[in-house]
């Protein structure tokens, strides 16, 4: 149903009895919105991220939140690895080189770097991070991680803070959620610890990195390169990055394939079915 | 030593007693050249490919050939996977989209395809092919292959001909050597069996694919996409490809990282040491 009413008017007129909301990643489910939906009991999002949802307010109002669970983890991990190979071996940059006919006129393109043996640090070893780690092992990378807590069952080296992780790795892959704790967690000090040869891959959320600082480091050659699927103010991308060959820019699409879309829609339906038949959620958010 | 003499004159003057030649990948070690080097006993190449060397003539003259062995296999496999992810998930094309500011002006970029569950066929399951297979398993791909003979020890599905392999896979990765048997092995029929959704990755040699036919198939949408590190007449790349977004072009650099360069030089030296002390080669070519 489309309506010409303003959202608040529309909701108070039609939505006072709504029990379930299916939210898109761009809907801001904040306190103002929740106040207009007094009967709401469930917010079901077909994505993995919940940074658009005020989780504290939901908890206080007894509203459950479900996500796509681990459904997109494989896609995100694939992109993370694709981006890492790209920046290490200069795939996109070399493609530009060939397409602009420089291979013929200027000769060989500079070499990239080997993946095997490189120390790769994963920030956030949840569903996505674990899939990334599994793939990195097949490439002969040495995997370490930072996470809220040490995962005893996993063989990777744990660092209790991200600064120490950055100081001991050749590449950082950001896979964690954006929360008040992780906002701008990758700051000047962490980037400086990563160093001139280090590269950073972000498939989490843009604001986990202090973007201004990242741009400064890249422009001044203070880190080796960056692969970014996410940015602080999407679709705005800092234009200083457009001129850099050690950067791969991806329009926030790590989690998106038609195959996963279909599966995540099925998960939303399963969560709705569970809700209306008083069963536990298929994929509750455990923040 | 540099000399202004023409090559044949130089060789007959100075090189009649030369026992060992270190050949570069662009040196054509053919019958004409070998005739000028009557004392030659070893051609040591710091690469994996030997298609620049007349192996029949070498065998007849009792000349051994050594290669870099499996030294570059990991690098080549990394690029093969990087290219496959790139074309499936549209990494280079999306990077172009962001850099030309289309994300801001035109909105979302089309989705790519999931890697997990895809049937990937490897053509040539030698050192490189095996490294590719190992990586594909970590991505949840279903691996099959075509090779001179079935490898009993490996769990992948074997197809005795490449046409049948193409008909039963979503992506083909060409990892075999260029020989008289494999020249233009990927022809019109094989590409047609791969089909409109199928993609092809070539990290072998350009002439293994009938390039004209490949370009025709890509231009007419008869196959889904291509990732090419090698071409028939390098550095010439068919210019019809420059306009296509479902193609990733790489300037023949799959095997090249500084790390592997250094290791392959060490292998050349080990082969020379073995030769001069009458020991078996470290990495003989077994054609």
UniProtKB/TrEMBL annotation, chains A, B:
Q: Which GO terms describe its cellular component?
A: cytosol
What is the superkingdom listed in this entry's lineage? Answer: Eukaryota
What's in the keyword line of the UniProt record?
Answer: NAD, NADP, Oxidoreductase
- Sequence ranges assigned to domain D-isomer specific 2-hydroxyacid dehydrogenase NAD-binding in this UniProt record: 81-254
User: Where does the D-isomer specific 2-hydroxyacid dehydrogenase catalytic domain start and stop, copy by copy?
Assistant: 14-283
Q: Please give the biological process terms from Gene Ontology that the record holds.
A: photorespiration
Name the InterPro entries on file.
Answer: D-isomer_2-hydroxyacid_DH (IPR050223), D-isomer_2_OHA_DH_cat_dom (IPR006139), D-isomer_DH_NAD-bd (IPR006140), NAD(P)-bd_dom_sf (IPR036291)
Please provide, alphabetically and separated by semicolons, the GO molecular function terms listed in this UniProt record.
Answer: glyoxylate reductase (NADPH) activity; hydroxypyruvate reductase [NAD(P)H] activity; NAD binding
Q: What is its EC number?
A: 1.1.1.79
Give one Pfam family: 2-Hacid_dh
- Family assignment from sequence similarity: Belongs to the D-isomer specific 2-hydroxyacid dehydrogenase family.
Protein name according to UniProt: glyoxylate reductase (NADP(+))
Species, as recorded: Prunus dulcis
Source organism lineage?
A: Eukaryota, Viridiplantae, Streptophyta, Embryophyta, Tracheophyta
């Amino acid at each position: 149903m489309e309506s010409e009413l303003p959202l608040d008017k529309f909701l108070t007129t039609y939505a006072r009895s709504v029990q379930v909301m299916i939210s898109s990643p761009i809907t801001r489910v904040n306190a103002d919105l929740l106040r207009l939906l007094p009967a709401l009991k469930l917010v079901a999002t077909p994505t993995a991220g919940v940074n658009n949802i005020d989780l504290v307010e939901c908890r206080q109002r007894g509203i459950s939140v479900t996500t796509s669970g681990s459904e997109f983890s494989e896609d995100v991990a694939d992109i993370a690895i694709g981006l890492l190979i790209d920046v290490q071996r200069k795939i996109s940059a070399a493609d530009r080189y060939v397409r602009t006919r420089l291979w013929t006129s200027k000769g060989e393109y500079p070499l990239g770097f080997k993946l095997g043996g490189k120390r790769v640090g994963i920030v956030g070893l949840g569903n996505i991070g674990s899939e990334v780690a599994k793939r990195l092992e097949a490439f002969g990378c040495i995997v370490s991680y930072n996470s809220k807590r040490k995962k005893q069952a996993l063989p990777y080296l744990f660092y209790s803070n991200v600064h120490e992780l950055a100081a001991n790795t050749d590449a950082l892959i950001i896979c964690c959620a954006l929360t008040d704790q992780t906002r701008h967690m990758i700051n000047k000090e962490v980037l400086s610890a990563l160093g001139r040869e280090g590269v950073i891959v972000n498939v989490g959320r843009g604001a986990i990195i202090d973007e201004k600082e990242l741009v400064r480091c890249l422009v001044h050659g203070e880190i080796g390169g960056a692969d970014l699927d996410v940015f602080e103010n999407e679709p705005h991308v800092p234009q200083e990055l457009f001129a850099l060959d050690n950067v791969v820019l991806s329009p926030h699409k790590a989690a998106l394939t038609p195959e996963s879309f279909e599966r995540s829609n099925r998960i939303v339906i399963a969560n709705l079915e569970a809700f209306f038949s008083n069963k536990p959620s298929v994929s509750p958010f455990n923040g």
